[in-house]
Amino acid sequence: MQHDSKFTNQKFKLVGTRVMRPDGVDKVTGRARYGADTFAPGQLVGAILRSPHAHAKIRGIDTRRAEKLAGVKAVITSADLPDLTDGDAELYNVLENCMARGKALYDGHAVAAVAASDAETARKALKLIKVDYKVLPHVTDVDEAMKPAAPIVQPRVRSKYRPGKRTNVAGVTTYGHGDVDAGFAKADVIIEKSYKTEQVHQGYIEPHACLASVGPDGQGELWVTTQGQFAFRNRCAALLGMEMSQLKVTSSEIGGGFGGKTHVWAEPVALALSRKANRPVKLVMSREDVFRASGPASSTSIDVKLGATRGGRIVAAHAELRYGGGAFPGIWGEIGAMAAWACYDIENVRSVGYEVVVNRPKVAAYRAPSAPMAGFAVESTVTLMAEKLGIDPVEFRLKNAAREGTRASYGPTYGPIGIVPTLEAVKKHPHMRARLGKNQGRGMACGFWFNFGGQTCADLAIGEDGTVALSVGTVDVGGARASLSLIAAEELGIPYEQVRCNIADTASLGYNDMTDGSRGTFSSGMATIFAARDAIEQLRQRAAKTWGIAVKNVAWKDGKAIAKGKRKSLTLKELAEASSNTGGPISGHNQVVADGAGVSFASHICDVEVDPETGATKVVRYTVVQDAGKAVHPDYVEGQFQGGAAQGIGWALNEEYVYGEDGRLQNPGFLDYRIPVCSDLPFIDTQILEIPNPNHPYGIRGVGETSIVPPLAAIANAVSDAAGVRMTHVPMSPPRILAAIKSSREEQELTR
Amino acid sequence: MRYEAPTSTREAIALMSGAKGDAYLLAGGTDLLVRMRGEFIDPDLVVDIKRLPGIQEIRKTARGFSIGAGVPCAALGRHKPLLRAWPGVVEAAQLIGSDQIQGRCTIAGNLCNASPAADSVPALVAATAKAVIVGPGGRRRLAVEKIITGPGATSLGKGDIVSAIELPNRPPKSGDAYLRFIPRTEMDIAVCSAGVSLTLGPRNVVKQARVALGAVAPTVVLVPKAARAIVGTRLEDDALQRLAAACEAACSPIDDKRGTVEFRTEVAGVLARRAAVIAYERARKKR
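ok -> structure tokens follow
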């Protein structure tokens, strides 16, 4: 279907207002139903046995004693999930990640599962399963894994890194343009710096949970916490050999996903258990399972080289980005390489991304996946360069920022973009002039994210009382139902309260891509606009029929059909009430590939206080400035800005996966995996800029992800200002900062 | 699993002494229940002591204060005379967990759980607190530092129950303080910690002091050399430096996910120095 999705600069009545969210009351009163909150007659409890080893050959699995335990209804191993992937390597990786096939590849890798009448029996059954492991040498560190002598994690991995040989480097990708060597030759100042970031988890509060049911007739249902019911349906159906339409997937309310709920883990296992037991199976991961065996973000090791003239122009930039993808090949290094230099207009620029396989859980997306680490390395170096040149870091960025018409380092030429306006706003912000106290410092950094559009479908059904049921297929992760209802109401010219937005299951609506790439409001917003216009077309036809005039003479304005010469207009409600006599139910529909998601930029300002005797860092003030295109519901846009900053602060200061010498995860819980608690954070101030996306009727850009990109470098730059030490290893935990302060003090004493 | 909630001390002792298999006492349960749910332990018997007579009371005695083993930490801060006499002990107890945990957790439980990182223990040791133990052998008092023998291990015998913690009366011009280091601001476990208790003499010179460190050794470390460093001083800079150096010398921590040997050692000295200053100010302001 062809649609004109160009920005029209219309005046809004409802879009941009701060209305109550439709899911709010249920969420604050505990009525909202999440992944673990549904029940089926005769349901069993599923549980998964996981490898205690980082790398081990599975010589055998004896399930006989578990099967004999009273109350156990099914025990499965990889034999119950036969390989139906038919040469699809990516799908095979998913299958192998769901349940180990001959080899356990990380601490926490699933090796068997049970379904039993209750949780206690299921736990007992797991203990009765005997797995014969032969422990193999393992590697969990990115740099170690790239060495020629490193243990090989995946024998089938081949790449141009070591042509024809086994390697842990699954891919190498290069982006950029110009002549980097010639560029560096022209530079007056060159800075080279290496950085490391540790693995982090999205930290969503709701663990993975589902209720799976497969009947003897082959029909299946899955209730699940997910960012994409359709993607889960397709994946699960393919892995289990089911037809897509035979598996109905319903998304529950979601207690946080941030990219972590875009992949299947326990769901195919739950379906396989249900199929074998012939009963519904509920499977809920523990927090420990979530840390050990869902999809955290990459750990990285990054080298940056930056060259500039004394006048403050960047003339060459190069980055080598090594991303640990967990036990399976990914595209995380590639995305990092694409995002690294996207904020700047650089004549000679190159970035090389490496996909490194290690004995850790398979990496999944985490809010602007791969960009925060690249941003940490690049934005730290950019500030270092500004300091070395004696130029204000904001001015230095403004001198080099990408603009409309700039060829991005990753290929495309930018349309109207927001980096310069965010930098100008930072320059003017009172935060930049506020006085700093003792041991305090200030830093700033920029961030970029691509955003995504994708396949989208929406239905809009008008009830006979004139109220509207809007069905969309993108899971609401951040208030999208309120935003989409606002958009439908705006188009139809009716009050917001007259629209109710529902998230459809896979049997009720056409395919939708997942809620990822900050696409929910951008793409479902676009489909909603067109579905509403489709309904308006029908409403005009009904009015024309009622009046006995041509449709072209009927206009739609403020929720009413009007026509020249007709003194009385026909309201949406009147047309709906009469619909049974004018042609039946009135509904609008749209399906679209929502192209043209506008890229997104943000600039953050951060003040920290560093205790020079303990290395403890407190964030004392934080400001986010970001381009939203158009803020449909400003509260939830601000919420996205604040949430991304909060997660970035945790990542920057304390969050990290700690692996022991034995390759086992040491901190699979919120006690020692330290996401910030409320008292760790200041109020996060926000400023929304609206630089319309030319490719959306309302000018909307995705807003969900960019805000997690700048914090790592903004905090590193602030810590450097406060404590006089340049932190190159994230998290900047107190022991790391204290060690850096001590070694810089010792250096100063030596040079004295 | 068998659960018992006896109403007499004799009954509780009998249950614990006669228990077969793994028997645990339950006071606040903030450690026990977590360990059960995490499947670290699988008790055969749990004896809830919250219904024992007097176990939920803070009593003012001739010797000082007696805090029943069932008194939740939140209650300590509401007891004005206790708070006035031992602000450091109370602030240590009230750092444990969160508001919700505070409504349940107890200092006796914190002691008997025998974690090297227990928050209230260094403050109790600095305060010369004593544990009241009832058991098959009768009733006795023991200095709290004699209870913990290693991580998770105590000197308590089968059937022994710590029924109360006793704190002495305070001489005039006395103060105590406790500080811990955590990477977050709350909901965390000490990476290292320090409790200091002191009494001033004429001209505000430190007359007596006790310094105890947490999470830097298998058990709480009492550091007499650190105390000697400040006795006879008014906490001048060099005295504080000597105090910190003595604390660092007394540390024998481990490297783990929560901190390095180097970090724990250095920060323990910093915390002891800062806690001493707070305790000193509290003492100075008292009559």
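DSSP finds eleven helices and 14 strands in chain B.
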